[in-house]
Each structure stands twice: as structure tokens, then as C-alpha cells.
Amino acid sequence: MTTRALVIKATSGTDRPEAANQAFTVAAAAAAAGAPVSLWLTGESAWFALPGRADDLELAHATPLAELLAVVLEAGTVTVCTQCAARRDIGPDDVLPGIRIAGAAVFVEEALADGAQALVY
Q: Which positions ≥6 away from 93 have C-beta within 8 Å?
């Protein structure tokens, strides 16, 4: 059985905790199941790439965001949108180890790859 790659774009931060948590939960569940996962942090979710910032999101009955992020980082790829990072003065030295900053062309390449499934939260 071939597993499709999953490309997830998270667009929300602490402004929309349920949407942010859903993106991270799906990414972590897919990674734990062995699927290739690429989680993109765009808009307000870009802040979660910084050390300690995932702890800022608290949501009842949900796995802590920092734990979900750790699962994805261990088994998948986490990327911050280049423009989103620039608008927030986030540079490569600011993000957690293992997180990259890349632009729309990379997102499009991943999303259009054969067998890939893209989801936006």
C-alpha cells in the first residue's frame, strides 16, 4: 500500500486556537501513522516556529501544541512561509531546530507532487 504525502498549511495562531490545533493534530496523526508530512506555518501560525511559542496555545481537551509539533518535527517537515516570517521579523536563527523557512514555490512543488494531498486550516 502506498501512502500519499500530506501537505498541511496552518494559517491560524492563538487568534483561532481550534483551527490551529486541528492542523497540528492532523499533521501529528498522519506522521505517527507513517505518512510523509509537510506542515506549513503561515500567517499567525508562523509564531509557533519560535521556541516556547507553541506553549502559548491552550485548548481544553486537546493535546498540547508543543507535543504535536515535536511529533511532526521528528517524523516530517515543518516550514515557515518566507513572507510570513519576514512580516514578523522571524529569521532562520530564530526558529526551532529542524524548522526551515521557504517560499510559495516550494509549497506549490510539494502540493502538486504526484499523490500528494494538500489541506488548509
A: none
DSSP reduced 3-state for 115:
coil
Instruction: Determine, yes or no, domain membership for 1.
Output: no
Strands 77-81 and 117-120: unpaired
What nine digits make up the cell of 97? Answer: 531546530
Domain extent at residue 103: 6-120
For residue 58, the domain's CATH number is 3.40.1260.10
The per-residue pLDDT for range 13-56, each reduced to its tens digit, is 999 999 999 999 999 999 999 999 999 999 999 999 999 999 99
- Residues in the chain, overall count: 121
Q: What distance in Å separates the CA atoms of residue 31 and residue 75, rounded to the nearest whole number?
A: 6
